[in-house]
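The authors assume throughout that readers already know how a fold can be written as discrete tokens. For illustration, here is how one protein appears when written out as sequence plus structure tokens:
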Amino acid sequence: MSEQQDINVARAGKLDTATLSDALDKHGIAGQCYRIKARGEGFVMAGRAYTLQYGPASNPPGTVGDYIDDVPPGSVLVLDNGGRDNATVWGDILTEIAHRRGIAGTVIDGVCRDVALCRQLGYPVFSKDHWMRTGKDRVQVEATNVAVNIGDARVQPGDILRGDADGVVVIPREHEAAVLDTAEQIEAAEEAIRAAARGGMRLDEARRQHRYHQLQTKEA
């Protein structure tokens, strides 16, 4: 990974998901992970995607979670379980190892379990929900480091994922510089608007002066 790419992960980590969502909209990118939420208060993360695709278990069944030692530190684990809410693909053993190995967080198109430990350790897990039933003998890993779907958003290996209290967004690698530039402009404009409003300026005038609506309007 290049130094510039490392810088872009750090840039994304300084921006909230709402601002990044507006920037994605301006560039016409559907990067908002629908209904994916933090399983603990204060969970935040930023990193590059390490993806896994799940499918129904074969006979005999394959593995659900033996990949963890191959994941580079600083990555975000992205688990596409097809939105299943009847079987988990993440629990306390994976949480403990991921936390110890310095993995940035886990995002699941589906559910997790053992949320008490991730909250205790402060390890960020984002999913559609949590429930206790194991995915063992129900689902299995089909592919690693392939394009996956998380809450209707496409995630490819190496894309940036950012998560906070509002949810998760994915920034495609090929568009990350442009999206981050736009998000930083939006953030600066919003801070200037808030400062102007605190000083007594009308909101519509403050937004006009700082070109707020143009910053959020989709490019032609």
